[in-house]
Amino acid sequence: MSFNTNENDIFFGPVTSRRLGTSLGIDLLPYSDKYCSMNCVYCECGVTKTLTTISDSSKAFPTLVQIENGFRLKMKEIGNSKIESLTYAGHGEPTLHPNFLGITKLIYNLRNEFLPKSKITLLTNSTTVNEPKIRESYKFIDKVYFKLDTVNEELFRKINRTPQEIKLQEIVDGINSFDEKRFQVLFLQSKNFDNSLDKHIEELISTFKKLKPTEIQLYSVARFPAVEEVKPILKERMEAIHQKFVSELQDTEILVF
Ligand code: SF4
Fold first, then answer.
1. What is the pLDDT of residue 135?
2. Is residue 39 lining ligand 1, measured as CB closer than 6 Å?
3. Do residues 168 and 204 lie in contact, with contact meaning Cβ atoms separated by under 8 Å?
4. What is the pLDDT of residue 18?
5. Which of 2, 17, 47 is nearest to 230 (CA)?
6. Which of 1, 179, 190, 235 shows the greatest Cβ crowding within 10 Å of its Cβ?
7. Which residues neighbour 164 within 8 Å (Cβ) at sequence distance 6 or greater?
8. How far is the CA of 210 from the CAs of 152, 167, 192, 207, 243, in angstroms?
9. How many other CB atoms are found less than 10 A from the CB of residue 64?
10. Does residue 125 line the site of ligand 1, with CB under 6 A?
11. Ligand 1 centre and the CA of 125: distance in Å?
């Protein structure tokens, strides 16, 4: 696996994303390691060695100047290519950058200047949703997708493996306070747990009925996971879950990948 090493690598792609179309990725994390507040069993970046909820400013996060330079270089490289989404993603949780709010303002202005038809998207693991500066940063992002693989606390600990201070209910309550909500839900199976069982689907749907999301994206493991025995669910099972979501959440756009 390679991590970003200079301003040329902050922006990656464009790539054709199953869920976002033509996407130009933005990787804001320290150059040397995956940096995340989760250690998901299915993570395609491997195990989280730096598992933290802290935005540690002593780490080598890219600066605003590097980000702006990197963006301008990328614009020269891609010319007139159509970009549907400018996407905060990368090897960890983007909102852990100590100046995430400042970056969102910068990217918002650069998007307006260079790519006015593109949407700005954030893929977040939701753990920072209650931090005031992160909530403010959402004003400069068109679509925030919150990870919510389960609403069962025990399963949450087994799948997402966060530090103990992160509480699932506080995440759900924090997300609930926004008007517009989008979610990503990943289904998986392993020897000891399975978040696609009927009882867990019922729990999720019941929570989503209260949250009233605009959109939910359902998907499964597609790349090599951090924990080898983790497997994707069967296509037939995914289709059955999709149908159940569609019939129970009629005001929400349900997409399956
Ligand atoms: S939140 Fe994303 S980057 Fe972090 S461990 Fe989970 S899948 Fe990997």
1. 97
2. yes
3. no
4. 79
5. 47
6. 190
7. none
8. 15, 19, 29, 5, 19
9. 12
10. yes
11. 7
